[in-house]
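[User] Could I get a sequence and structure tokens?

[Assistant]
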Amino acid sequence: MPSLLNPLGCALAAAILVTGGGIPTARAETSAAANASVLTLPEVLELAGSASPNIDAADAGVRAADAARRIAGLRPNPSLNTDIENVGGSRAYNEIEVPKQTVSIGVPVELGGKRSARIAVADAQGNRAQIERIAAGSDLMFVVTQAYVEAVAADRRLTTARDQAAIAAEAVRAAHVRVVAGRASPLEEQRAEVLRISADAAVDRAGRLADLARANLGRRIGRPVTNALDQAWFDRIGTYGPQSTQSGSSLAVAAARASEDAAEAQLRLARAQRLPDVTVTAGVRRVPISNGVAAVLGISVPLPLFNSGASSVAQASAERDRATALRRATELDTEQEIEQARADLANAIDFVVFICLDGNRRASSGRLSARQNVSNHGGSGPLCDIDLTWGPESEGAYSRTLESGRVLRRSTM
């Protein structure tokens, strides 16, 4: 059985009880499907990972960040210039000067540490992309696991509903025998028939919900779910869940810190861009009249008369302050979420312990009493109306425990 001291184990224990504690029925189903192809949770997670658009988007983000890092490390391309002077003009000028050809190469020189600042920005953005990739995988794991658990629970609820329908059919037959023997009123047979119709309708509803749960799981893995599900997987759960509840280790805080680092790098880049880059040129000039050549050297310096870069620095500084404030807010919110999730998880575990201790006893006792009531009284006693699924309490425990464990796990990853 899963340990009640870890969040997902408790969630899955409660998920088993969503079906009304029908352990004998579940074991019978597992034995019947032992020779069939079983779709396990690891296989589902693998299929979902290859079919998830969120994972594809996160992987594309990582590739884009890697490409941006390579681009940030590149230096400016040189330029090749070719000039021809003294082309055309008046007749007198043509007699004095002849066309001159100049070929030169211009090399931009970055000043102020612009390249290292660009690399720092790209590194911070790459870290953020990696964090988002991990977060996407974590979210997918929880969503797919929940869909898998819901599909298994829906199958078990369907089995329980069929058991109820069988009991109701037995009640109708027993009531009919009592009516024929003159030991009961025809109203009792009619009442048993109404209960049988209600049980058959419950089977139809449970069947539709089971089909819906499998369809939802199939959407996650990209193919229809026609295989049997691994019912015995719940009994093999080991310890699972967050081992640390420090807010500094959460993905949300890590993402906020990556954003702060990126904003700090952007501020550094904005300051570096205030220093203009220069372009150094070197070339040769050929004078056709004497067939001689001469070296040509030059330097180009932009004049920051209209745009000195002060506004860009102010903008980057404000963005850095904003990222810092958001990081502090994220830390506070995460700490609050962790404490709230821990309290909710403790409360949910207490309720799951109660279900684990009492659920199977109540469900088994209910089935036995209902069958005895049908056999002995022809469905006329109050126990014929027992709800063997015991759904609302176990469903609520499952939902609260799984959600609390998910929040705590997500907040402390």
About this structure: The beta strands are 38-39, 79-85, 100-109, 228-229, 278-287, 292-300. Residues 310-377 form the longest helix (68 residues). The radius of gyration is 37 Å. The longest strand covers residues 100-109.
